[in-house]
Amino acid sequence: MRLPLRLAALTTSALLGVLLGVPLGPGIAPATALAPAPAVAPLAQAHAHNDYEHARPLLDALANGFTSVEADVWLVDGKLLVAHDLADVDPKRTLSSLYLDPLTKRVRANKGSVYPHWRGRFQLLIDVKSEATATYRAIHAELRAHRRIITAFVGDDVRRRAVRAVISGGRDRDLMASQRVRYAGYDGGIDEIDAGTPATLMPLVSESWWPRFAWRGVGPMPEDERAELLDIVERAHAGGYRVRFWDTPDIQSPGRRAVWTELVETGVDYLNTDDLYGLKQFLRRR
Questions:
Q1: Measured between alpha carbons, how far is 87 from 84 in angstroms, rounded to an integer?
Q2: Cys staple from 244: which of 109, 125, 157, 206, with CB 3.0 to 4.6 Å?
Q3: Nearest C-alpha neighbor of 245 from the set 42, 49, 85
Q4: Same domain, 5 and 85
Q5: Is 146 in the same domain as 13?
């Protein structure tokens, strides 16, 4: 006799429960009941370049343990829209809907942290594509609306929260420096390391790997280039700045692995990638 579908499912589930010693109801898979998903360990040096181009912006990076993500924003009709090019903006894909709102929910669920029991700060790098001043004012308003999770700077006081925002691309440095209350720092250039800017205002320095470094991971890194890389990192860290390079090799290859290895060994703070799984595997194996 053929059992009705719901009764068959119930019978199968109950039988598995008896065999495994776990009470299972209909629709509950044994794997779900017996093996909850393991917690993801955060990777301090993992930065998701153009994160919004992944199938699940922010969420794919978090699933791979990334602690920094990058979002390009355009100010269009008063909205901060996330896209690489203006032609690709979508009114539904806003800075808040893709990043600030999900991060707020996650921090609330994890009792004050992006990852459970993690004491680090998650970096949200916002790359301004439209006019700098108007776009920054809109970003400031959005960050203020989410201030429960965003690190704030009030005079010389730093009020640390789960997320620290950094402005890249178009930056109105004078406006940011003049604010009594600020919810972001800005991303400076390598040539600004020795300018004496407070690290609370310029917490990060970034630059393209090429053309400063010609080495793409083929053969040993030239000694003069490695010495320059070490010098950059040491001077930046002495000033309290974190370091990131973009346009490093990012196609799976021995060359990419060699460059990533040098970046880690010389103390570069963030490795820039579009290959979330590839960088996760590389860092996990170290």
A1: 9
A2: 206
A3: 49
A4: no
A5: no
- The reported pTM is 0.87
Q: How many Cβ atoms from other residues are within 10 Å of residue 247's Cβ?
A: 14
- For the cut 80, the answer to whether the pLDDT of residue 91 exceeds it is yes
pLDDT at 205 over 70: yes
* Crossing angle between the packed helical segments 254-265 and 276-284, to the nearest 10 degrees: 60
Which position has the token pair 């800005």? 186
Print the domain residue range for 20. Answer: 1-36
H, E, C per residue of the chain? CCCCHHHHHHHHHHHHHHHHCCCCCCCCCHHHHHCCCCCCCCEEEEEECCHHHCCCCCHHHHHCCEEEEEEEEEEECCEEEECCCHHHCCCCCEHHHHHHHHHHHHHHHCCCCCCCCCCCCEEEEEEECCCHHHHHHHHHHHHHHCCCCECEEECCEEECCCEEEEEEECCCHHHHHHCCEECEEEEECHHHHHHCCCCCCCCEEEEEHHHHCCCCCCCCCCHHHHHHHHHHHHHHHHCCCEEEEECCCCCCCHHHHHHHHHHHHCCCCEEEECCHHHHHHHHHCC
Residue 109 exposure: Cα atoms within 13 Å on the Cβ side: 9
Arithmetic mean of pLDDT, 194-211: 97
Instruction: Please give the Cα distance from 263 to 209 (Å, whole number).
Output: 11
Same domain, 101 and 148: yes
Measured CA to CA, the distance from residue 103 to residue 35 in angstroms comes to 26
**CA 259 to chain CA centroid, nearest Å:** 20
Say which residue, 132 or 28, is predicted with more confidence. Answer: 132
For the chain, the domain total comes to: 2
- CA separation (Å) from 51 to 8, 46, 55, 161, 277? 44, 12, 9, 22, 13
Give the CATH number for residue 181.
3.20.20.190
